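Cross-posting from the modeling subforum.

Setting up a comparison between two proteins and wanted a second pair of eyes on the formatting. Protein 1 (sequence, then structure tokens):
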Amino acid sequence: MMQTTNPTTDLITGPAASPTQSNDLFGVPVMASPPKPKPPKPVPEAVPKNVPEAVSPDAPKPGYDLTSLVVPLLKSVLYRDDDPALWAALLALQARVRDHVAVLALDLVLDESEGYAFLKARPDPEDEAAPRPPRLVARRPLSFQLSLLLALLRKKLVEFDASGGDTRLVLSLEAVVELVRVFSPVSSNEARLMDQVQTQLNKLIELGFVRKLKAVSTRAASPDYEVQRILKAFVDAQWLSDFDARLATYQAHLAQDGGRDD
């Protein structure tokens, strides 16, 4: 049987519609509207590479460890003004430093307000029969004249603090000589006395009690000396309470000794 076609019907119906398109009433394909573009994905903000992360105030300073703190303390006194970064590291790690030096029978003496720190050997046991631990920090006996100069500078430091002025006690060589002159024999030679005082000041510089300052100008005949506040830790208030009696003993000793350095 022959199949006939109806052009009218075929025009209206047309071929089978594609599943991806639709036709209007006249069989004209209607293009589907393009899909809406998806919104772009948010791009994460770039983090600057050079911005440091927040660091806890108790965290150790970079570049400093126990070795870099303990070794300077074993050598001498550590002052805040000499190395502020090292001082900040010591404050952050002081608990670990105390535990570390305790194995060596040493104690960390740290005065945050005055700005100095040093290691101090623990006192010997009161029981004489008990074994005494070996000392890592040797005791340095001071001569009589050095002890006298320390006592005079300590008293001067007390008077200076009571005046409420500057925090740094700076004395000229002539001013230090005048402190000692009162307790020197009357027949002392002026040039010899000044040389003795300057020699004693140099020894106190080695011990860390005095600092020699640079001359402000080349015209200065003699340098100035700054009394370090660590002196307060070695010459305490109990010692100062008997200061007058001690000075009387010193003066009698000088009169007998004739001003010689022991």
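Protein 2 (same layout):
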Amino acid sequence: MPSKEKKLNGTVIVTYRCNARCTMCNRYKAPSRPEEELGLDTIRKLPKMYFTNITGGEPFIRTDLPEIVRELYRKSDRIVISTNGYFTDRIVALAREFPQVGIRISIEGLEKTNNEIRGLENGFQRGYQTLKTLREMGMKDVGFGMTVQDRNAPDLVPLYDISDEMGMEFATASLHNSFYFVESKNIIHDRPMVAKHFEDLVNKLLRSRSPKKWFRAYFNHGLINYIYGQPRLLPCDMSFDTFFIDPYGDVMPCNGTKDKEVMGNLNRQSWDELWNSPEAAAVREKVRRCDRQCWMIGSVSPAMHKYIWKPAWWVLVHKIKSLFTSKPYSMFENRICRDYRDGKVTKEELDLCSTCDLCAAASDGLSKDSRGLLSEKTGEEIVADDLARQMEKENDQRS
């Protein structure tokens, strides 16, 4: 009897073009050329997946995104699209065609904070209204995504409360540095303050009746550990059962490396050839030696499933505690939090544990041709011109 094909966890970066101006991500300054971005022929070569995240850049900048989603549903059991929620009409139209798709809209706090961080005029209202419209349509797999930092940490629990009242998912992250974000200088400055807001969220999640939220509490516990620069709570198996593919067809282990690590190129290779290549084996060796200690959902979620007994035991212990106290979790369960509080470790020592490098020039992962465009225009101008052409074409089609 032939062995059952192993399904993978995949992230498809369909574009590096982005219309937002996020303070913690410079991808908008380094867009990809539309002509070079993933085509359907390459999408068809992807392996079977149990989960696929479609992301960017801003994926809804691609006007052919419905065709990409349609093709990916032949490959994947579940699809979630990460977006800034700005292109409401396009998002709603795609959701009508694919009501089972998941939508995660990045909202970085309450209205004032979000708009300052994301740099999109009326960004909060557009994102919020998009989510509200999707819920009114009956879509179930929709929610917020928030990258927590000093500037927006006080909005963490209030934003969670909004998502909870609306019956939506609530995903969190913290600052990372990598070629994907075109950033090397992100860092949390007031760790105890940010950690305290994570602690409050963890306790709310633990007190809920949702097992899914209990495990989300564990993920946020891991974020406290991460912002203090400590080793991951779970092993990283990126490139073994999980992969990323960028707009150029380059397959990578993840989006958290300083420079782009390429296992092969799906435009030029078959999946089996790429996945079993010497280049892929070399990248896997690098992953085993990686010291970046990332804690992003793309790498943690597969690890939580694979090493389920570790988060499950943590959840069990804290659910038992929740029977006797309204605050079953304390950030001081992390030894590093106690050591910092007690003066056994300094802020400067913790800063050295982060991936922040104030002297480094951030990598961007662009192709030679995409980077060449930046000699003529800024990334913002390139994307603005592209969107203007799209709008003009859409107006012509309506008239």
